């Protein structure tokens, strides 16, 4: 099953991203990200996190799952929650924006999640980020912009 996880970074505005949120079979909001979903009348399947960024009226409305331990961030709490429920395909939105340290940490977390699940991607208004194993084939077209990073 596919899980779409919305972090509390920059909320996506592109139609592609909004369609991913609207059509997600299993939509998880990380803590305060539920506020943006609620404003657009998108209902998450689950709201999870340490609940330090969610308004009390939304807590009452969505009955979020509180994971108060502070050894992982809300994104990891959401990922492992979905993984433990059988999800095997992950799309992450809202990983970037607001704070560069969070954006960088979230990018490196994708590498960690890849150890548990091979279908991992981050989608934003600006592009797509995937973790790949070598060797790989990357379908493309003439003029498409591609960046590759080796993190070994």
From TrEMBL:
The record, for InterPro entries, names: Thi_PPkinase (IPR006282), TPK (IPR053149), TPK_catalytic (IPR007371), TPK_catalytic_sf (IPR036759)
One Pfam family per UniProt: TPK_catalytic
Top-level class of the enzyme under EC nomenclature? transferase
Q: Which CDD domains match?
A: TPK
Question: Which keywords does this Swiss-Prot/TrEMBL entry list?
Answer: ATP-binding, Kinase, Nucleotide-binding, Transferase
A single GO BP: thiamine metabolic process
Which GO molecular function annotations are given, in alphabetical order? ATP binding; kinase activity; thiamine diphosphokinase activity
Gene3D superfamilies recorded: Thiamin pyrophosphokinase, catalytic domain (3.40.50.10240)
Return the EC number: 2.7.6.2
Q: Has UniProt tagged this entry with the keyword NADP?
A: no
Instruction: Give the Thiamin pyrophosphokinase catalytic domain ranges.
Output: 19-120
Question: PANTHER family, per this entry?
Answer: THIAMINE PYROPHOSPHOKINASE
Protein name stated in the entry: Thiamine diphosphokinase
- The source organism is Helicobacter pylori (Campylobacter pylori)
């Amino acid at each position: 099953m596919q899980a779409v996880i919305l972090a509390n970074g920059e909320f996506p505005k592109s139609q592609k991203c909004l369609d991913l949120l609207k059509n997600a079979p299993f939509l998880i909001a990380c803590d305060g990200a539920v506020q943006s979903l609620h404003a657009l009348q998108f209902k998450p399947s689950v709201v999870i996190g340490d609940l330090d960024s969610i308004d009390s009226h939304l807590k009452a409305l969505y009955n979020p799952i509180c994971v108060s331990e502070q050894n992982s961030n809300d994104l990891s709490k959401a990922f492992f929650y979905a993984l433990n429920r059988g999800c095997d395909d992950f799309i992450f939105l809202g990983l970037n924006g607001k704070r560069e340290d969070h954006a960088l940490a979230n990018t490196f977390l994708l590498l960690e999640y890849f150890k548990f699940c091979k279908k991992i991607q981050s989608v934003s208004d600006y592009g797509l980020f995937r973790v790949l194993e070598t060797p790989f084939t990357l379908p493309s077209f003439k003029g498409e912009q591609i960046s590759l990073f080796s993190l070994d």
